[in-house]
Write a structure and sequence with these properties.
single chain, mainly beta, two-stranded antiparallel sheet, two-stranded antiparallel ribbon, 4 strands
Length: about 60
């Protein structure tokens, strides 16, 4: 399955930028204030469609 990443909403603040990924196995959000039961001890990385990696902090 091809992984296509598409920007669907852009605002002046980067933390409100949303991406759709047709091959995603996890859902991510850039604003932790929108979460409940947030655990900031979780650390990992995620591989993006262009093979770059991004740090993951919290779940």
């Amino acid at each position: 399955m091809a992984q296509d990443t598409k920007e669907i909403k852009e605002t002046e603040e980067r933390n409100e930028l949303w991406f759709l990924d047709s091959g995603c196995s996890n859902h991510m959000i850039g604003n932790k204030s929108w979460l409940f039961d947030y655990d900031d001890t979780f650390k990992d990385s995620v591989k993006l469609g262009d093979d770059s990696k991004m740090a993951v902090v919290g779940k």
